[in-house]
Amino acid sequence: MTTITRRQILGLGSAAVGGLVVGTVAAPVPAVAGLEPETAPFSWTPRILDPKETAPIAHQRFYHQGYGCGYGVFYSTIGLMGEKFGDPYKNFPFSMMEMGKSGVSDWGTLCGALIGAVAAMSLFWGRKDRDAMVMELFRWYELTAFPNYLPPADIKAGKAGVLPKSVSDSVLCHISVSKWCEASGFAADSPERSERCSRVTADVSAKVVEIMNAKINKTFTGTLSISKEQAKCTVPGCHGNKADKFASPVLKSKMDCTPCHSGSKATMDKLTIAKPKAAAAGGKMASPHIYK
């Protein structure tokens, strides 16, 4: 009996091996088709919702199993579509959005309510349509004094009554929460702070539904743009002109930069603006900023 190795078989063209015909090696197998439930990217149909209905749902869903803000906004939009219209909206693993809580697993990055809002938008619109919607939502968040939603006195979860407000000037959870704590006098781990965030969740839910409704009705026109402070940072000699040998090409952001780069004691005087230093490495990474 003739022994033939696997390597020899793979190297054969069409040949007979012990009575079996081994054919020529086929072309590479094509990639497996996608597993997305939609027939094309962003093909789900968005539905009109009432912001006055989604806000209280978002507020209460914030407390559901402790899932928090990202889950609260996402369920109040996509979950409500599922409750009202069934498939395909109801077939989403909603608990996945718990990851947005406290700026993603307590890292204090992007506010989880905004994560839930953009995730909801992204089921329907790609970046070309969505960017202006995100700009409107995020700048509104930076500029708004939160919280505005006032739950009824008989709420099942959370605290009733009026809470202090503050403007965050930032979409970051850490800054948004810290500024509110400073303004209100409540600690970050207090029930009042949790209630504040549950109400911000309601506020964001109402706003994103307002934006999505306008997009559905083809009446959406973004009215907000980047902050004046951020615009100042994208000028020649700073971050904006690649041809300028003193310009720094490291900026990639649309958020207001002053909460982290004001040079105040609250930001540990990390950054001050000074005269541009001599360009290093041909000026490719030179920066007019001096870090203390």
| Helix and strand run | HEEHHHHEEHHHHEE
Q: Based on helices, strands and strand pairing, what is the structural class?
A: mainly alpha
* Biggest sheet, spatial arrangement of strands: 1-2
Number of strand segments = 6
> Between the first and last Cα atoms, what is the distance in angstroms?
79 Å
Which radius of gyration do the C-alpha atoms yield? 26 Å
How much helicity do the residues have?
A: 25-40%
Quaternary structure annotation? single chain
Mean pLDDT: 78
Parts with pLDDT < 50 across at least 5 consecutive residues? 9-25, 269-292
Largest sheet: 2 strands, antiparallel
Q: What is the helix tally?
A: 9
- Beta-strand residue percentage: 5-15%
Describe the global form: globular
Structure description:
A hairpin with a 2-residue loop joins β1 (15-17) and β2. The protein starts with 5 loop residues before the first helix and ends with a strand. With 292 residues, it is mostly helical. The model is unreliable at 9-25 and 269-292 (pLDDT under 50). The chain is built from nine helices and six strands, in the order αββααααββααααββ. α3 (69-85) packs across α7 and α5 (127-143) crosses α7. It is globular and about 50 Å long. It has helices spanning 6-11, 51-61, 69-85, 112-122, 127-143, 173-184, 191-216, 228-232, 258-261; strands at 15-17, 20-22, 145-146, 166-167, 271-273, 289-291. The strands form three sheets. A two-stranded antiparallel sheet has the order 1-2. A two-stranded antiparallel ribbon has the order 3-4. A two-stranded antiparallel ribbon has the order 5-6.
